[in-house]
Amino acid sequence: MNANFFNQIAQMDITGDLHLTIAKGAENSLIVSLILQNEACGDNAKNLIPPLNLRGTAEELDEGFFLKITEPIQAVSGLMVDMEAFMKQMEEVKKQSAMEKENADREKKEKESKDKKFREAMQKADELDKEGKFREAWMKVPNPTDFPEHSETIRKRKTELSDKFSTPSLFGTEQSV
Fold first, then answer.
1. 52-74: per-residue pLDDT in tens?
2. Could you point out which of 20, 30, 43, 77 has its C-alpha 20 to 30 Å from the C-alpha of 87?
3. What residue spans carry the Basic and acidic residues bias annotation (predicted)?
4. How far apart are CA 25 and CA 57, in angstroms?
């Protein structure tokens, strides 16, 4: 007897393990149940795919077995491969999302830190201004290139302070207020 059963299974081009169960039914019939298992597929929805069940006599199954199973088994195999590819893409998206969130958090912290430094420097300059130490206050005002978003405010404040300590008197010496 020369059967080509396994050659035909090999030609089906499926991914996973094909589980085949054969049971005797009533009146010389057979019940064949096939289910494809793909452990590489991480999606639990694969467990919802029902087995393919065929009933018939031995002669009927010999004639039409591969005609009946080839298309559905290949479709299930492709579905599981696609599900796994989808799961991997989703993992990558989650990683990218986490990275983006981490980057956004880091940038936010850097901006908050920079704003805090700016506020502290301006507050120190204001304190020195109130004490009448205009030159020291002018020195404490931050550099506009370090804080480009506040450059106009910084230039304005430096001008105000320099006007205070460089006001000449009638006698040719600088006058401090």
1. 999 999 999 989 999 999 999 99
2. 20
3. 94-138, 147-163
4. 9
